[in-house]
Design a protein that fits this description.
Blueprint lengths: L1 E2 L7 E5 L8 H15 L4 E5 L3 H9 L7 E4 L2 H7 L11 E6 L11 H18 L4 E4 L2 H9 L9 E3 L21 E6 L9 H15 L2 E6 L10 E4 L5 H10 L2 E4 L15 H7 L5 E3 L5 H4 L6 E3 L4 H10 L2 H18 L3 H7 L8 H9 L3
Helix pairs in contact: 1-12, 2-3, 6-10, 12-13
Length: 362
């Protein structure tokens, strides 16, 4: 579906996810929209559900877009093959997040088909104007598939978030009787609900604190921690929970063989803007989002490591990390990185300008 159609727009954002649907791609799309608005760049938004909807865009009259920003690579793969939106007519910008570049399908037959198409898809991506990976891990995954890096086309830009008036440091203390944790993740296998439960049970046993978990997981009642569901929560309430929680959790597993891994971990930044540090697993791009013992903790997911972590955790180190994650998020992960990337997106902007602003961020 085409939104915000302006007759004089030359830029189109293509995305499969958009609010009210929750998730990283929806948030990412909102962030790109915010940047283009700040820069005064008129754009249209195309939210697609399937390949047929993408194909139908090329059949619409008018719509002479000169730049296309693809939040997911499928829209690029389809539209750049059309005469109307071919690479020699349109500057295509692709964002690579994670699982979508593994060429895995929902079943064996679909996976075999995607693997057969992989050489053609990679060659097509190599013809794009710019390809932007949200983590070094994601770019390495793409290269492992057979993609050839070219440094005037391929960039690594870690995620950024929209910092608003509520993005202020909120003090917490480990001396409080109750510790609150948030895990804003979908209830799917690689998000590792079992790992979250294990960590919280060990935390309760070691610290003897009252433990509250805010999450979207479907969890059975237990005696060691209290679970409060945040399914269908609105954005204002979510902010309040991030602000008061002592820790953000993202213990995702590496399910690359099944087509899933954590490309970066946007919730690390969503929590960090309030001084709430994260505990993450060592997989995917998570160690690039959360810097171990500096802005949070990267833990191996075995019981002994978890026990050792809570035994050694102390108020002084915790407060130092809370302060650092707040400053780090504000300084290194605001939307300024995308302002610099898109400041020359319009046709009169030169690729050299994009390169000079982007290279400094890698």
């Amino acid at each position: 579906m085409l939104h915000n159609h302006n007759s004089d727009s030359s830029v189109l954002i293509c995305t499969p996810d958009y609010p009210p649907k929750l998730g990283g791609l929806s948030t990412f799309t909102l962030n790109i929209e915010s940047v283009l608005k700040d820069l005064g760049i008129k754009y249209d938004l195309f939210v697609w559900k399937n390949q047929s909807e993408i194909k139908s865009l090329s059949e619409k009259q008018g719509l002479p877009y000169k730049e296309m920003i693809h939040i997911h690579g499928l829209s690029y793969q389809i539209l750049s093959r059309t005469k109307k939106y071919s690479n020699d007519r349109v500057k295509h910008f692709n964002f690579f997040h994670g699982s979508e570049i593994l060429f895995k399908g929902r079943n064996l037959l679909f996976t075999l088909f995607k693997k057969l198409m992989r050489p053609m898809a990679l060659k097509q991506f190599e013809m794009a104007y710019a390809n932007i990976s949200i983590s070094e891990f994601t770019q390495k995954q793409l290269v492992s598939q057979g993609y050839s890096i070219r440094y005037d086309r391929d960039y690594i830009l870690h995620n950024g978030i929209q910092l608003d008036r509520d993005s202020s440091f909120v003090p917490k203390s480990l001396e409080e009787d109750t510790w609150s944790f948030i895990c804003m993740a979908r209830d799917v296998p690689h998000k590792n609900a079992e790992g979250v439960k294990e960590l919280l049970k060990i935390c309760s046993q070691i610290t003897h604190k009252k433990i509250i978990l805010y999450s979207g997981f479907d969890l059975e009642e237990n005696s060691l921690f209290e679970h409060r569901s945040i399914k269908n929560i609105d954005n204002d309430e979510l902010k309040k929970i991030y602000q008061k929680c002592h820790f953000n959790l993202l213990l995702s597993l590496d399910h690359s063989s099944q087509g899933f891994y954590e490309g970066f971990g946007l919730t690390v930044l969503e929590a960090g803007q309030y001084g709430t540090p994260s505990i993450v697993s060592p997989f995917g791009g998570l160690p690039e989002a959360c810097h171990d013992k500096k802005t949070g903790w990267v833990l191996k997911l075995d019981a002994q490591t978890m026990r050792d972590f809570f035994v050694q955790l102390n108020e002084k180190d915790y407060q130092a990390i809370c302060a650092r994650v707040y400053q780090h998020t504000k300084i290194s992960h605001s939307l300024d990185i995308y302002h610099r990337l898109f400041s020359h997106l319009l046709e009169q902007g030169s690729k050299e300008s994009i390169l000079s602003s982007s290279r400094n961020l890698q």
